[in-house]
Every structure is written in C-alpha cells, then in structure tokens.
Specification:
Order of helices and strands of chain A: HHHHHHHHHHEEHHHHHHHHHH
Order of helices and strands of chain B: HEHEHEHHEEHHHEHEHEHHEEH
Strand content of chain B: 15-25%
Largest sheet of chain B: 10 strands, mixed
Number of helices of chain A: 20
Radius of gyration of chain B: 21 Å
Largest sheet of chain A: 2 strands, antiparallel
Number of strands of chain B: 10
Shape of chain A: flat
Helix content of chain A: 55-70%
Largest interface: A-B, 36 and 31 residues
Oligomer: heterodimer
Shape of chain B: globular
Strand content of chain A: under 5%
Helix content of chain B: 25-40%
Number of helices of chain B: 13
Distance between the termini of chain B: 36 Å
Structural class of chain B: alpha/beta
C-alpha cells in the first residue's frame, strides 16, 4: 500500500459507513459504477437500437398508420368538405349550388396541382366510377364557365355528380381517419343504412386469409413429418457422418430462393421430369398427366422444401441434447422400442417441435415469392394481394390494412401458442 | 383508327426502303450541355430490351460526352416506386422507361415532367417537328415514345397438327386446340379479345365494355377456358411455357416470341390476328435538380432522334415510334436477317389489329382491375 492511499484512509471519518478508496460511501460508488456499466452497454447497443427504430419499426408504424389515414379528401377538397357538412344525405336530393361552387374552386385548384386523379382513385376504392368521373371532370373543368352556375356544368360532364350516392360517399369519407380500408379487408361495405358483407362474387380477402392459414398449417405439418426423421437420423449417426448430412440439409438453404422455386417448376409441370418418369413407368398414361403446379399442391410442395431446414435445425439441436441413457433405461425396464420412443424420447423433443413449427408457420404465413411463382390463382396467399396493392393497384391504404390484420393474426396465434405450448418450452438449441 | 393509319404508313415506308438503309456512320456532333450533371440513373425493363437501349442510346452517348449511366431494372414497379419517392421528396431516378398507360397515370398525377416537343426533342432530319413525327403515338406531353410493340400469340407448331390457329377466337376453341393457354394476369387485352369473340364488332368493343353486362359477358367468355389458363406476369414466361410444351398457345410481347423463334429456334409459330399494339417510351420524373434535368433533357433529345430509334431495331424486333425512323430500319445486328417482316407494324402482320384505348383504360382501369382480380380468385 503506497503512502497516498494510506493518507486518504487515515483522513476518513470513522462513522461506520463502508467507504471506497476515494472516500465516497461504497453504496454510492457501487451505484455509480453500475450506472456507468449500464450506460456503456446502452451506448454499445445504441447504434443497433437506432438502426432498428429508424429502418424497421418506424417505417412499419408509418405504413400501418396508412390503413386508417384519410387526409386526402379534406386536403384536396377543403372548402367542399366544409360546405358539405351541412348537407343531409337522407333528404334524397343532391347538394345545392353552394356545394358545387365550392367544388369548382377546389377542383380547379386540384386540377392545377394535378392531384385530382389521386382523389378519384382513392374514392374509387369505395365505389367504382369515381376514378373515371374525376378524370373526365379534370379534362373538362378548364372549359367551364367561371361565372357558374356550376351544378349543371358538373352534371353535364358526368351525371353521377347529380346523384345522392356520390355525395354520400364524399361526405362519409371527409374525416381524416376512416375504417373503410379495414372494412374492405374483411369483404364488408357500409351502405347508407347498414354494414354488410359484399356480394358473394366480390369477396376475396376472407377467403384468402383462410386459405393462407390452412395452407401454412399444411406446410408446417408436412415439414414436421419430413423433418423429424431426418433430424432423428442426424442426431443418431456418427458425428462425422452427421456433419456431411447436415451440409446436405443446408445446401439448398444456401441456394437462391428463385433457383429452388424454378427448379420445382421444371420438376412438377405437366411436361416435367416427374410426369415424364411416371408416364415412362406406365403408372399414368400420357393424357392423364398430373397437375402439380400452378395450384395449391405446387405451393405446398415448393414451400415445404424451402422451409424444411427451419424445422430440421431446431429439432436436431434439441435431439442432440437428449441423453441416450433415457431410452436405454426405458428399454431395460421392459418398454418396447415403440413405447420407449413414444413415452420417453418423443416428449423430450417437443421443445424442438415447438420451435420448428412456430418458425415455419410464421415464415409461411407471410411468404410471397414462391406462391406467386408456383401458385397459379388457387395457390396464392394474402401476401400476394398485399404486394399487388402496393405495386400494381397502388391502394396502399388497403395493403396496410391487410398487413395490419395479418400481423394481428400472427400475434394472436402466437399468444394462443404461448398458452397451449408455453413459449418457455421452445428451444432453438 | 388514326393511330393504326400512322403505324401502317410507317410500316409501308419501311417495306419500300427495304435493307438499303445505312445504319451507323452517324455524326455525333452534339450541342454542348451547360450546367449539366455527368451521371444519369436510367430505369428500364432489363434483359434484351435494356441491352438494345444501351447499344443504341447510352453507349454512343457515353462515347460522345463521357457521361456515366446507372441502369435500374424497375420499370415494372415504376409507378409505385415513383409515387413513394415523390412522397418521400427524394427522387433518385432521372429517366424512366414505362408503357404508355403508366405514362398517362404518372402524367395525370403530376409525377412526370411535361416536355415541349419543339425544344426538348429533336426534329426529324427533313425538318418535321418531333410532335408531328411521333404523331398520335405521343399520347401526352410527358411521354416520349420509343417503340411500338404488340401483345400477340405464339403457338406450338407441333401441337396443332395441320390446322394452326390463325384467328384470335381460336384461343377459346378448346376442341380444336386442347391444352393449356397462357394469358396475361390483367384485364387489359383479355377483356377486349373475349368481347370481340362474343361477336362484338371491333369498333364497339369499348362501348360494350362500358356496361356491367358487357364486362360480365367478357368474363363469362373467359370462364369457358379459365381452367385451362396459365396466368403470366412476366413477358419471359410464355416463351418458356411454349418451349417446355406446357401450353399450346399463349400471349406475350412479340419481341419475346421473335427471340424464341428466330434466335433460339423453337417450334413456335406467330399468330398476329388481333394483336394489341402498345407503346413504350420515356418519362422524366418531376423534382429533379437543375443539373440533372438539363442532362437528362440533353440525353433524351439525342436518344429519341430519328437515327437512334432506328438503331434500336437492329437489336430487338420492336418498331421505332417515329415515322421518319422506319425507312432506316435495317438488318439484325448479329443474325443479319431483315427485321421489317418481324415488326408488328408490317402490313402482312397487321391486317387485323386491336388498338387499345388509353383514355378509356385510364378511366376504367381501377374498376376493372378489382373485378378481374376478384373473378380470378373465385
């Protein structure tokens, strides 16, 4: 101990409080050190946290917000919306000249900024015909007589301007937030008096949600049936052999998704390898070639193959930790092979099954590219519709609503899963 | 009809000019570009088409000016991406290749710049103004057309016996032509063909489709072959399906079929009846910086002049969109075959064509897309 330290120790008051070398109470100094430690670890993870916030959570939140956002109506037609608030749709008459005068001024402005077609497309989601009406009006409004009367001029361009239903929809979608996209996402529509499901031949989203669910379950089950024996084999052969086999499992994993999917096309199509072999082996005749692609079968086969490693790996790592002495003990107590497996071995693998199943299911439910390529019209998922609305129809609000529902569905399932299986029982290795 | 007249006139001149056209050897005396950026990001479709643009437009331009090009293969999602960029206030594309209907949409929404035919585009060598040279093909002020292509049918020559399909309604004839057909997964063209084969005269197609009953009738017609249809979204799918013998006939872009037949020697025949003419061309996004805008206009003036458009036809079988380019269309750069007979605009191929109505589709696309998609899912 050097003399400086001895000095401080000697200068400490003798009040029974434990002190650090510099004289501060030990408790305080410990807290400070811990705080510093925490701060340091926070600073260390800060870049990642920030990255996740900015590049992942914020965009998702922003996108989901679009599912209720409806600024466009009141932003594009601000004056009309105000004047229209007093109009009563149950009166059975279209609004009066004052509303049309406001509409003329708003529309003219919107036409100058070229934003009227966006509003037309927006309202078209609620009722067909708006898009065309807005476009036609946009083309003709510059030729209108500025002095009015406006109502007759609008109706001359498109008679729907004179209909109560048109104005009811504009009024209804004036607020800045709307449940409209969610209604569409469950195939419902609200007419003038009630909420109801759309006509049978226009319903697609509920059907797609149900299809996405059951096909994902089918894929998970077939992954389990195929993956379990493989994982069992991997866990019970020599280490060196297991490593070689593991590479075989991982090899497709490292191959491009598109290549694997296209390979399935070559295999499964009617003039493809599998059908050719079956015909050659006289198992089927040339006219009766099996249809295995561009339908649900194709999607299930291709996705089972693609997601299989996600089932095998957790199963394998759990099986590796099961001591062989358990089964030996069961057998020495007189259990048959089957009983020993079913009563002793299998229950031990349940955490692996849980982990694999949840991984495969959640990946499958949001899958997009494989169903698009091999699913035809009957084997596509809800995610394909979301992609369609994002990139082709540009109905981002509906895409966001469908996405939010899918997210909720996954969270709800996750919750049920936790209640039934218990998330603590899930083991990734 | 005006459109068709122009296209046919274009093709006819091409016939007379034959192979005498001299490509190459063009002087590249470009006007200087002041206050211009020296890089451009250009968006196109990828594949052979983009390569033809690089060969005919950007490579010679780089040689003359040193400007570097970055190509992005996003034309299929151009409208969605441009809208997102515009919302974010960060437009990273300088020039975008789109089909005419997308150009209408982008121009309508103010996402594409309006271009002046007199100042922004090059006049024909004989002094005809650009607007007159492009004629009706310049569907609006934002769009500078490059090529005329068509969506038409190819069929397996070995699967149709002695009776190859020669008219559009054969696609609905499951007895004479059993087997699958490939159709594009969109209402455009399919509804028109179905309506036409329901017995509607060509000039009445859009009047009929303007009614709900007309659309239902068209979908009912498509219902008769629905189980036998493979729906495609990328132009390369049909040639592949035909090559594999998966389908007996299928629609796709004529240039894709040209490659499959002439370059890859597949047993495929062309059926040109009721081919649907469409246009592809450039738009300039709004919101570019001044240097970028100057540069992109400078390039555009060069890339859409008479000689450049004719040059592109050496690499791909799409007709140039300028009337004055047609006589200059020569032989295929590598194969050395005459390109004129493979053009959709050739008189032998365009006896009965379908001209689709851009304005009508712009007005009705949202409705019919929704209906068509719901019908597909049933």
């Amino acid at each position: 101990m050097n003399s400086a330290v001895t000095d401080t120790m000697e200068s400490m008051p003798d009040d029974g409080v434990m002190r650090a070398a510099d004289g501060t109470p030990l408790k305080k100094s410990l807290a400070r050190a811990l705080r510093r430690e925490k701060l340091r670890s926070f600073v260390l993870i800060a870049p990642l946290l920030l990255f996740i916030l900015i590049s992942f959570l914020a965009p998702i939140a922003d996108m989901l917000f679009r599912s209720v956002q409806n600024d466009i109506v009141s932003d594009t037609l601000p004056e009309t919306v105000q004047v229209l608030a007093d109009w009563d749709p149950t009166s059975g008459d279209a609004p009066d000249e004052a509303v049309f005068a406001a509409l003329y001024r708003d529309f003219y402005q919107a036409r100058e900024q070229r934003i009227h077609t966006r509003l037309g497309s927006r309202l078209n989601y609620e009722s067909p015909g708006f898009s065309g009406m807005f476009r036609r009006t946009g083309r003709e409004i510059r030729r209108y007589d500025e002095a009015g009367p406006y109502k007759s001029q609008f109706i001359e361009t498109d008679e729907d301007w004179g209909s109560v239903e048109t104005w009811r929809i504009i009024q209804k979608f004036s607020p800045r937030y709307t449940p409209g996209y969610y209604l569409t996402a469950i195939d419902a529509e609200s007419t003038s008096d009630s909420l109801q499901l759309k006509p049978e031949d226009e319903r697609i989203y509920l059907k797609l949600f149900v299809r996405t669910m059951w096909m994902s379950i089918a894929i998970t089950v077939s992954c389990l049936l195929l993956g379990y024996p493989i994982a069992y084999l991997l866990a019970h052969v020599k280490r060196s052999t297991a490593n070689v086999l593991l590479i075989l499992v991982l090899l497709p994993f490292w191959t491009s998704l598109l290549v694997r999917t296209s390979a399935w096309k070559v295999l499964l199509q009617q003039q493809g390898v599998i059908n050719d072999i079956l015909v050659w082996a006289n198992l089927i005749d040339d006219a009766g070639r099996l249809v295995m692609i561009n339908n649900q079968t194709g999607t299930i086969i291709a996705m089972t193959h693609i997601l299989l490693p996600f089932m095998i790996l957790p199963l394998y790592s759990v099986m590796q930790t099961i001591s062989p002495s358990y089964v030996r003990a069961a057998k020495s107590l007189g259990a048959t092979d089957l009983t020993a497996f079913w009563k002793v071995y299998f229950p031990n693998t349940i955490p692996g099954i849980g982990a694999g199943a949840i991984l495969v299911f959640i990946l499958a439910i949001g899958y997009y590219i494989t169903p698009e390529l091999v699913g035809g019209t009957q084997g596509v998922f809800i995610s394909n519709r979301i992609a369609f609305h994002i990139s082709t129809s540009l109905n981002w609000g509906l895409a966001a609503a469908l996405g939010a529902m899918l997210l909720l569905l996954v969270l709800a399932l996750f919750y049920c899963y936790d209640r039934i299986v218990g998330i603590d029982n899930v083991k990734l290795g | 009809m005006k459109l068709k007249a122009i296209l046919l006139a274009t093709a006819a001149t091409a016939m007379f000019a034959g192979g005498t056209a001299v490509a190459g050897n063009h002087s590249l005396a470009l006007e200087p570009c002041e206050n211009c950026a020296d890089e451009l990001t250009v968006v196109s479709w990828g594949g052979a088409y983009q390569q033809s643009q690089i060969n005919a437009y950007s490579a010679p331009y780089t040689e003359a000016t040193g400007v570097t090009f970055t190509w992005d293969e996003s034309s299929a999602e151009a409208v969605a991406k441009l809208r997102a960029m515009n919302e974010a206030g960060n437009v990273t594309w300088d020039l975008v290749d789109v089909v005419a209907s997308d150009a209408l949409r982008l121009c309508d929404e103010g996402l594409a710049l309006e271009l002046d035919g007199d100042t922004d585009l090059a006049a024909a060598p004989d002094g005809t103004s650009a607007d007159e040279d492009f004629g009706a093909l310049r569907v609006n002020d934002c769009f500078v057309p490059q090529i005329v292509y068509s969506t038409t049918f190819g069929y397996r020559t070995d699967m149709v016996g002695d009776n190859p399909p020669d008219e559009i309604c054969d696609i609905f004839d499951l007895e004479a032509y059993p087997g699958k057909r490939a159709l594009q997964k969109r209402p455009i063209d399919n509804l028109e063909w179905a309506t036409y084969c329901n017995g509607t005269a060509k000039e009445d197609i859009y009047d009929v489709l303007s009614t709900d009953e007309g659309v239902d009738a068209a979908l009912a017609k498509l219902d008769t072959i629905k189980d036998e249809v493979v729906w495609w979204t990328a132009g390369a799918e049909t040639p592949q399906l035909l090559a594999d013998g998966e389908v007996v006939m299928g629609s796709t872009y004529n240039g894709r079929l040209f490659s499959a037949i002439v370059e890859q020697d597949q047993p495929i025949g062309m059926m040109w009846d009721m081919q649907s003419f469409d246009l592809d061309g450039w738009i300039v996004p709004t919101g570019l910086s001044e240097e970028k805008a100057n540069r992109v206009k400078h390039f555009l003036k060069f890339a859409t002049d008479t000689q450049r458009l004719a040059d592109q036809a050496k690499y791909i079988s799409y007709g140039p969109a300028r009337a004055s380019s047609a006589p200059l269309v020569g032989k295929h750069e590598e194969l050395g075959i005459e390109m004129a007979p493979h053009m959709p605009t050739d008189p032998a191929n365009s006896a009965n064509v379908h001209n689709y109505d851009y304005t009508w589709w712009a007005d009705n696309r949202d409705d019919l897309d929704a209906k068509f998609q719901a019908w597909l899912a049933q």
